## 1
Amino acid sequence: MSSLSTGLRQWRERVSALFQDHEIFVRTHGHVRFLRVSAVWQKRVALIAGLVLLAWAGATLAVLVNQLLSSGERAEVAQKQAAAAAAEARIAKYRDRVAETAADLEERQNQLDEWQKSYFGDEPAIPGEAAATGAEAKPAPLKTSAIDPNLPPEAQALARIEARQEAFSARLLAAVSARAAKAESAVAKLGLDPASLVRSAAAGRGGPFIPYRGRLGRAGELGKGFAALEGALFRMEVLERTLVAIPSGQPANVLMLSSSYGYRSDPFTGAGAMHSGLDFPGPIGSPILAAAPGKVVFVGQKSGYGNVVEVDHGQGILTRYAHLSGFTTRVGSAVAAGQQIAKMGSTGRSTGSHLHFEVRLNGAAVNPRRFLEAKADVLEVKADARQRVGALAAGTGGAR
Ligand SMILES: [Zn+2]
C-alpha cells in the first residue's frame, strides 16, 4: 500500500511540475500590460480539455459499439431467416414423405381388407386367433420407440398407424400360420404330400383349381411382412381346400368290402387284376351319396363300369361311382357332401348289386380307405376348414 501511495505522490508531483505560474508581458499601443497565468488556471483548462476529449471519445465509442451490435443483430436475423427457409424446405419434404407414407399405408390397409374379406368373409374379427388355436401367437410390440421424436406431429401419427398395422399383420400371420400348420398335419395324416400340393397350386398346373383370388407375389412390394402373410394365406387356402375336397363321407349307407382295393383275382376271369376301388354290396336302388362337396363332371356309361357318376372336388381330387342302376343328378350340378347322386345297381362288369367307389388324385387311382377311415382329429380340422371355405367349395368344384 505504501508503495502505491508513494507512486501516486510521485505522479502528482510530476504533473504539478508541468503546471507552473507564468507571467506574460503584453504590449498594446505603448501600454505594457502584465498577464499572470497561474498554475491552477492552467490545470483547470487542461482538465476541461481532457473532459471534452473524453466525452468525444466516449461518444465515438458508443457509435462504434452500436454499429457493431446492429451488425451482430443483422447476422442473427439472417441466420434466423436461413433457418426458417431450411425448416420450410424440411417441412415441404416431410409433407411429401407424409403424403407418400399415407398412400403406402392406405394401399396396405386395402390389401389387408381384401385378404380379410376373401379369406374370412364378413366376419368382423380375425378368426383362428391364438386363443382358439392354442398357438403361441404373441402380438408384436408396438415399435413406438422406433418413432423419431423429431418428426412433426402428423408424421408421428402416421408412424404410429404404421406400427399398429404391422402389429396387426403380424397377429394375422401368426393366426393364419397356425391354421395352415393344422391343415398341413391333417393332410399329411391322410397320406398326401402337403408341400407338393402347395407347389403345384402355386405353379398353377392343370388339375387342381387355383383357389387364390389374385396374383401371387403381388404383396411383395408392400413389404416383407406382407409377402410372408400372402404366402401363409395361400398355403392355408390350398391345404384347407384340399381337406374339404377329401372324400371322407360314406358313399352308401352299407358296409364296404374293406379288402377289395388292390390286386385280386378277377371275379370273371380268375386272373390277377388290379382293383382300383372299394366295393359296397347292397340292395338295388340304395342311395349313392357324394363323398365330399364338388361338381358333377360325368353322368353316363363307361366300358366295364356300366352307369357312372364322377364328381370333381377340386385340388385334383375326383370320385367315381359305378355299376349304378339310375342317376339323381346332372353334369354341372354342385353337390354337397352326403347329397344323393345316384342309385345302386349291377350294370357293367358286375356279379351282383354293389357300388364300385373310386378316388382319383390328379388322374391316378388311390386307395379310398385312408379317406373314409380318417381319424376324428383330422375330421375336426376338416370341419373347421369347411366352415371357412364353406359355400365356396360346393359351388366352385373344379376347373377341368
Ligand atoms: Zn369294384
## 2
Amino acid sequence: MFSTTIKYREKSHELLAYEALFRRILEKYRLHEAIVSEYKRVKAGYDGEKNVDYKLSTYPDKDFFIIQGIRLKNPPFPFQIDTLILTTKALYILEIKNQKGTFAYDSEQQQMTQTVDGEVRSFKDPILQAEAQKDHLRGWLARHGIFNMPIETLVVIAYPTTIIKNVRDEPDVYQKIIHNESLHENLDRRHRCYTRDILSFTQLKKICQTLLDEDIPLRTDILAQHGISAQHLIRGIPCRNCGHYPMTRVYKNWKCAKCSAVSKNAHERVILDYFLLHNPTITNKQCRELLQINSRKTAYTLLRSMALNTSGNNKGTIYYSPSVKNFPQNSAIPITFNNAFAKQKLI
Ligand SMILES: [Zn+2]
C-alpha cells in the first residue's frame, strides 16, 4: 500500500499563462529572451516537482497524506509549500529544487550557488526558505487549534545528476538537503523518531480538508511583468493551419480567409487564454473585441456553449474563468515555437 495523495499537482497559473502567451503573442516577439528564460524557469520548476511527486507516490505508507503544492495565508502573509506530507505524528515540508549541475551550499554564508558549464548563479538559502514556511505553517495550524505538531523540513534535489557540495562540511546539511533518490529512506529515519500520535485520524482528515479549502493559488500578471500590451498580441482567432488572423465567423464556423481552413470551436482556446492573460472574467462586449466579431448574439451563444459560471443577467452578465485548480491542463504551445526553441538554444 502506497502513500495517499489528496491533492495532485496541476500546472500553476504562471505556467498556464506562459503557454497562453506563446499562443497569443505575435510571432516576431515569441522568442524574446526574457520571456523564454522565465518560461523555462517556471517549466523546470514544475518538471522537478513532478519528479518528486512520482517518487513520493511510491512511498509505502498509506497513512502518509500528500498535498502536491499548496498556497495558504498566515495573515497577512501568503506562503507556498512545494509538497506537504501529513501524518498523525508529524508534518513534513518539502522544498523542491530543480537546478542541475553542481549545487554548493554554504551554511555560514547562508547561500546556495549553482554552477552549470562554468557559470555561477546564486540563490536564496533553501534551508532558510523551508524554515520560513515552517513558521508560517505553525501560525496557520495555531489558528486552527493545533499547537504541538512537530514539523520537519527537507530540501529535495529533484534530479540525480545534480551534485550537492557541502562547502563547510557540516554534517547537519546532509540531513537537510537530499537527493530525490534518498527521500524514502530519509522519511523512514525521521518518522521512526515520532512514536506519539498528536492528532487522531479523524482530526488529521479534517485538517487535510481545511488545507484544501483554504488553498489560494497565485495569479501572476505576466503581461505586466514583461511590459506586453495589445500591440504585441494577435487580434482575434489565429488559424491553426497557417497562422493567419483573425478567422471570420461564417455559418456557425470559424473560417480562415487565407487557407480556407475551418474550425468549429477555435474560440474556446482564445477565451481560455484571455482568462489566463488578461482577466478572470469576461463580458459579451470584451468577448466581441477579443474574437473580432460584431454580433452580440454570436458572442452570447459562444460564451453560453462553454458552460462557464456567470453572474448578473442580460447586458450585465459576467462570465467567469474556471478556477486555477480546475483549469484545463492540455494547452500545447504552437509547434512552430517548439521547433524554433530547439534550434535556438537560448539558455
Ligand atoms: Zn489558415
